[in-house]
Amino acid sequence: MIMPRVRTIVAGLLSVVALVGAGLGAATTAQADTYVDGRLFGLHVPQIANGAVPSVAYGSIRLWDSGIAWGMVEQGRGRYWWAGLDRAIAAASAQHAEIVYVLGSTPRWAATHTYQGTYPNRGAASNPKVLAYWKEWVTAVVRRHGASIDAYQIWNEANLATFWQGTARQMAILTLEAKRIIRRYDPSAKVVAASSTMRLTTSFSRFFPAYLTELRRVGWPVDVFAIHTYGPSTAAPAIREVYVARARARLKAAGAPARPLWDTEINYGIKGPGAAYPDVDIEGAPAAADVAQTYLDSIRLRLARTYWYAWSPPTELLGITMFDATLGAIAYQTTHAWVSQASVGCTSAAVRVCRINRSGQIAEVAWTSAGAAGAYVVPPYATRQCDALDVCTPAVGGSTVMVGRMPMWFGP
């Protein structure tokens, strides 16, 4: 039996995230406090349908690369293999995670051109040859799993030929038709725009503005915009600030309405783009620092959700491994403990500072995005300082310390 979802509406969060689609850049002074609930901390769990249970606290899961894409579920027109998707949704619901399901990509039998794309099947990057195929698929998913799925993302990385070789207009039509169906059967579910990855500037510039133009022409049928902030393999988390500003500039130029902005995939050290950027394995304290910075920066940059890719044993693809007992997972859990269920306001000076207010108990986290350390004055109330690996030492309020890329928490 599929467990029903619980949709939590947090007024403090909504008052802030409503701004993120309006083209506002990263703050350079103190930002208004954001209420951070657990949904900021999203994961991909490729083995969720096979019983994987992450050992960290997370509030949302994006179902992609889990063996349950459209072409794997609908194996012929109207012929569905529901078992994998049923198991994935039941497991995610049992783990109390809000579910985002990616509706694409195209089954081979439904593809206009079967030579367009090979993952997860031939023709996966093709526009469906008959729009009715898409409408039937969306209807089937929403009617079967509407009680459990909280948000539907239209497509994955539609700016890349690997995943989409149709036009921006065609993607906007798929978006519009999906919204109409979702609203009919599940009015409270969110419609998330097709994601665009940002490290390939040419493909982003080719697709994202055109997609926004077409979404405008059909009445902005989305509740959330989405990007992927993977950088070149050697880039640090600071690259995300550049990407977020670039995406918001495009949204502003397109006249996009105020909508939340989600980062629906992130990791580091992934090979490319091009031969100049080999894959980079990021381990130890640097991995912990990058993970902690990622989620703190998501607050600072007003990204409503961030989905780490992925909860998985080591692979050649991923620079940072997030799995049981890895330092990345420890940093993820530590950062979650610092900021979840609290009001957080951040500054964007050379030393980044996030002030955390949890039911009147105040703490701060400080770090630098660049390699150089910076001076930071310890708050007068602080008696402890802890790094993202939850290693703590005494602190002296009012003293000046040097902080670097490893975020440091200061509190009572």
Question: Could you walk me through the main structural features you see in this protein, from its secondary elements to its overall organization?
Answer:
- It is a single chain.
- Helix 4 runs parallel beside helix 5 and helix 5 (about 170-185) crosses helix 6 (about 200-215).
- Mean pLDDT is about 95; it is low at about 1-30.
- The chain has a 9-stranded parallel beta sheet. Strands 1-13-14-15-20-17-18 form a 7-stranded antiparallel beta sheet.
- The N and C termini lie far apart (about 45 Å).
- It has helices at about 10-15, 70-75, 85-95, 130-145, 170-185, 200-215, 240-255, 285-300, 325-340, and strands at about 35, 40-45, 60-65, 75, 80, 100, 150-155, 190, 195, 225-230, 260-265, 305-310, 340-345, 350-360, 360-370, 375, 385, 390-395, 400-405, 410.
- The longest helix has 18 residues, at about 170-185.
- The protein has 2 domains: about 15-30 and about 35-345, Alpha-Beta Barrel (TIM Barrel); about 350-410.
- It is about 30% helix and about 20% strand.
- Strand 9 (about 195), helix 6 and strand 10 (about 225-230) form a beta-alpha-beta unit.
- The protein is of the alpha/beta class and about 400 residues long.
- It has 9 helices and 20 strands.
Task: Characterize this entry briefly.
Helix content is 29%, strand content 21%.
Helix- and strand-based class? alpha/beta
**DSSP strand tally:** 20
Shape annotation: globular
The biggest beta sheet is recorded as: 9 strands, parallel
